[in-house]
């Protein structure tokens, strides 16, 4: 079974076992779904009792935990779903974990690997690194010419100053 991270555990919240998380999904309503969720490195199967968003953070209570001491071990870990429960994306949209590791080229020349995707309100920014340099490229059609997941490649346009 392949697991997909949908939230990163940042900290505990309160004393009743609630976890404060950074969502890794654009669709927060996914936490309403009756699917299997797995928590932490050990992939403990959990059921969401309730969740809420506040100031960009996700707060989740799980049926399995009623005390802060039961959830302390999950700090800096992730909440996962099974890959089969992923949503189908429309054309031109990609999952971040599918993009990480793509080999980036500009004008046919290798410039580095896509190592991170930064999400902002206006658009995402792709962080591409090689041994010498780091590029931050806005994920807009003017700079991202082609994404080829099948071959693990991304074609980008770099302008002076990037």
Class inferred from helices and paired strands: mainly beta
Strand percentage, roughly? over 45%
What Rg do the Cα atoms give?
Answer: 18 Å
Overall geometry comes to elongated
Largest β sheet strand count, sense and barrel closure: 7 strands, antiparallel
What count of helical segments does DSSP give? 2
**Distance between the first and last residues' Cα:** 39 Å
Helix % is under 10%
* Average pLDDT reading: 91
Low-pLDDT regions: none
Output the helix-strand order.
EEEEEEHEHEEEEEE
Instruction: State the total count of DSSP E strands.
Output: 13
Please give the order of strands in the largest beta sheet: 4-3-7-1-2-6-5
Task: Tag the structure with descriptive keywords.
single chain, 162 residues, mainly beta, seven-stranded antiparallel sheet, six-stranded mixed sheet
What does this structure look like?
A hairpin with a 2-residue loop joins strand 5 and strand 6 (57-62). Helices cover 5% and strands 47% of the residues. It has 162 residues and is mainly β. A 7-stranded antiparallel sheet has the order 4-3-7-1-2-6-5, with no helix packed on it. It has a 6-stranded mixed sheet with strand order 11-10-9-8-13-12, with no helix packed on it. It is elongated and about 55 Å long.
